[in-house]
Design a protein that fits this description.
InterPro entries: FAD-bd_oxidored_4_C, FAD-bd_PCMH, FAD-bd_PCMH-like_sf, FAD-bd_PCMH_sub2, FAD-linked_Oxase-like_C, FAD-oxidored/transferase_4, Oxid_FAD_bind_N, Vanillyl_alc_oxidase_C-sub2
Number of domains: 4
Family: Belongs to the FAD-binding oxidoreductase/transferase type 4 family.
Shape: globular
CATH architecture of the largest domain: 2-Layer Sandwich
Radius of gyration: 22 Å
Keywords: FAD, Flavoprotein, Oxidoreductase
Cofactor: FAD
CATH class of the largest domain: Alpha Beta
Protein name: FAD-binding oxidoreductase
Strand order of the largest sheet: 13-10-12-11-15-16-14
CATH topology of the largest domain: Uridine Diphospho-n-acetylenolpyruvylglucosamine Reductase, domain 3
Strand content: 15-25%
């Protein structure tokens, strides 16, 4: 970046909110992926929508690319600044702006942490249901930009289903106030949904209005041990028929071993190749129906063992076995596949994918887990210590291309909830047709004609 451009940026924000120290550039220039080295030229820390707008107009004038940055918990390289861009980090835009008790909505700045939204909703007797392990550091703007899902999608939907209003700054420096919290709005294109999942390529999210829900009524959590992968969807169908499931998550014995090694407490004495954590509200006879479903599944040989939490603390201990997986794998530098198919296609897809993974990774440890109740699998390949990281990534990329062909045959997606970013870009054609991608390019040119917003992400 030219010195006069940097001076102008500091003139907008002040010296303290434009960072150029190497440690700051490394911290803000990457997300949870470690496959691309960060190389931003500066980090800008705006505090208002007006300042974001000013930064975009500055970037247009000085021909500088921008990378919007939230909590940087992404797993696809969507927030990586690798080519001298300026990172626009929204950490200081972290306030609750409004609460409407009639609409049951919360309007927040984009830099507020997901967990802070949970807490703000709870303080008002309500519930924000988008939930995942990184909620303490992920931010709402990033959740919107990747259409984050998590463990309660089965009942409450994705982030897209909770956003009733959105304020964004486009690549032309315009501020758009989209939908404004309306439940019904039949006035043409709903541009709000274009920005949800766009990974900051159309505009920078600065505010969001979120629909809250009633808090769960006496949630019950069960941990189930299963004899094989074929039993998972049959157990899912049995429990879904018995109770209104909030979540249905699975993981393998290898995933459990990594979590237990980091201090989690074992909840079952029985060893099994697969486990499920499911949650439901114990309303009326729901708990009795769930236990009856358990007995039927056990009698049919679909379950080996199980336990039900008897308190909030026990529920949390059971959930920790699932939510601690990503953190427990992080030291192994996993290569992550985040894929989805229709729930009805899951048994056939999983069988074919397992055969492919076993054949192509004979010497690698592979850890499976995911939100199988909504058709989403996380396949984590762990790097052998003796293998150089570039060689590991190259080999995983080769196998991912083969997995993409399986995904395409089953009508699925190469990215269920982590976005495309840099890392999934080579495989986009397995999910999106050439015609779709060209239309997306055209939409991008409309909102970002100067090509300054998160260049190189999604597609070139």
């Amino acid at each position: 970046m030219e010195p006069d451009a940097l001076a102008a940026l500091r003139g907008l924000l002040g010296e303290a909110r434009v960072l150029t120290e190497p440690a700051d550039l490394a911290h803000y220039g990457r997300d949870w992926t470690r496959q691309v080295a960060p190389a931003p030229s500066a980090v800008a820390l705006p505090e208002s929508a007006g300042e974001v707008q000013a930064i975009v107009r500055w970037a247009i004038a000085h021909r500088v690319a921008l990378v919007p940055s939230g909590g940087r918990t992404g797993l696809s390289g969507g927030a990586v600044a690798a080519a001298g861009e300026v990172v626009v980090a929204l950490d200081r835009m972290n306030r609750v702006l409004d609460f409407d008790p009639i609409d049951r909505s919360l309007t927040v700045q984009a830099g507020i942490a997901t967990e802070a939204v949970h807490n703000a909703a709870a303080e008002r007797g309500l519930f924000y249901p988008v939930d995942f392990a990184s909620k303490g550091s992920s931010q709402i703007g990033g959740n919107v930009s990747t259409n984050a899902g998590g463990i309660k999608v089965l009942r409450y939907g994705m982030t897209r289903d909770r956003v009733t209003g959105l304020k964004v700054v486009t690549g032309t420096g315009e501020v758009l106030d989209l939908n404004r919290g309306l439940v019904k709005n039949a006035t043409g294109y709903d541009l709000r949904h274009l920005f949800i999942g766009a990974e900051g390529t159309l505009g920078i999210v600065v505010e969001a209005t979120l629909a809250l829900a009633e808090p769960p009524a006496d949630p019950k959590v069960m941990l189930l041990a299963l004899p094989d992968a074929a039993a998972i969807m049959r157990v899912f169908d049995a429990f879904r028929s018995a109770v209104a499931l909030t979540a249905f998550e699975f993981f393998t014995d290898r995933a459990l071993a990594h979590v237990l090694a980091r201090g989690a407490q074992r909840a079952l004495d029985t060893d099994a190749p697969f486990y499920v954590v499911c949650e439901f509200d114990a309303v009326g006879e729901a708990e009795a129906r769930a236990l009856a479903a358990f007995e039927r599944c056990a009698g049919d040989g679909l379950l080996l063992d199980g336990v039900i939490g008897q308190s909030g603390a026990q529920n949390a201990e059971l959930w920790a076995l699932r939510e601690g997986i990503s953190e427990s794998l992080a030291p192994h530098l996993p290569y992550k596949n985040d894929v989805s198919v229709r729930v009805s296609a899951m048994p056939a897809f999983m069988a074919e994918a397992q055969a492919l993974i076993a054949r192509e990774y004979p010497d690698f440890e592979v850890v499976w887990f995911g939100h199988i109740g909504d058709g989403n699998l996380h396949i984590n390949i762990l790097k052998p210590q003796a293998l150089a990281h570039p060689d590991f990534v190259r080999e995983c990329g080769r196998v991912t291309a083969l997995l993409g062909e399986v995904i395409a045959r089953h009508g699925g997606s190469v990215s269920a909830e982590h976005g495309v970013g840099l890392l999934k870009k080579p495989y986009l054609g397995h999910t999106r047709s050439a015609a779709e991608v060209e239309l997306m390019r055209g939409i991008r040119r409309v909102f970002d004609p100067h090509g300054i917003l998160n260049p190189g992400k999604l597609f070139d």
